[in-house]
């Protein structure tokens, strides 16, 4: 999956249709690979920082250093001999755009949110693929995500394309999209 995503073929653990489409939209807008991450714990006492994490398989270009191992999560259920191939490590520091698409099943519509942030140099002790993300107004964004029924995943991409995505989805697709400012 890491190599596929690195060559702009969206692939990720736990990806759903709207997640894959979000990865693809980011890739089309930036011509760079995308990944799926979990919105995870807050980072220390900083209200604008959180930990991005996933069992991994991020595009190899996302890492500052990486290695291939047996997935900690997968091997607990299928055995180590069946879990080899996860690329793990710290996500490199840099500016990123995030995007999540979802469906509003009551209204029968697609909804989304987008914005930008920075992956910092800070390290956390964990497994999988991980990085500390700094996003302005993070608590307001997380409240929006929870109140509007979005999944715990978001797509990220090392780019600066949230304005392009917002305009394309709002103006041309007429989708309900929130932009974190």
Nearest-integer average pLDDT:
93
Spatial strand order of the main sheet: 1-2-7-6-5-8
Q: What is the CATH homology-level superfamily?
A: L-fucose/L-arabinose isomerase, C-terminal
| Integer count of domains | 1
Number of helices: 5
The N- and C-terminal alpha carbons lie at a distance of 32 Å
CATH class equals Alpha Beta
Q: Helix- and strand-based class?
A: alpha+beta
Q: H/E series, N to C?
A: HHEEEHEEEEHEHE
Q: Could you characterize the architecture of this molecule?
A:
With 181 residues, this protein is α+β, with helices and mostly antiparallel strands. It has a single domain, classed as L-fucose/L-arabinose isomerase, C-terminal (L-fucose Isomerase, Chain A, domain 3, Alpha-Beta Barrel). The chain is built from five helices and nine strands; from the N terminus they run H-H-E-E-E-H-E-E-E-E-H-E-H-E. Strands 1-2-7-6-5-8 form a six-stranded antiparallel β-barrel. Strand 1 and strand 2 form a beta hairpin. The longest helix has 14 residues, at 17-30. It starts with a helix and ends with a strand. The model has no long low-confidence stretch (mean pLDDT 93).
């Amino acid at each position: 999956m890491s190599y596929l995503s690195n060559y702009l073929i969206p692939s990720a653990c736990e990806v759903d249709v709207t997640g894959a489409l979000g990865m693809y939209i980011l890739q089309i807008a930036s011509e760079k690979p995308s990944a799926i991450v979990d919105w995870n714990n807050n980072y220390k006492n900083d209200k604008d920082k959180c930990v991005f994490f996933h069992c991994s398989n991020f595009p190899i270009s996302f890492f500052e250093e990486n290695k291939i191992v047996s997935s900690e999560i997968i091997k607990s259920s299928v055995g180590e001999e069946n879990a080899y191939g996860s690329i793990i490590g710290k996500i490199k520091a840099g500016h990123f755009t995030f995007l999540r698409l979802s469906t509003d099943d009551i209204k029968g519509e697609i909804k989304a949110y987008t914005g930008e942030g920075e992956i910092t140099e800070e390290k956390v002790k964990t497994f999988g693929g991980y990085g500390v993300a700094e996003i302005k107004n993070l608590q307001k964004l997380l409240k929006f995500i929870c109140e509007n029924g979005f999944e715990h995943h978001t797509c990220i991409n090392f780019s600066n394309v949230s304005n392009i995505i917002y305009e394309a989805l709002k103006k041309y697709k007429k989708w309900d999209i929130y932009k974190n400012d």
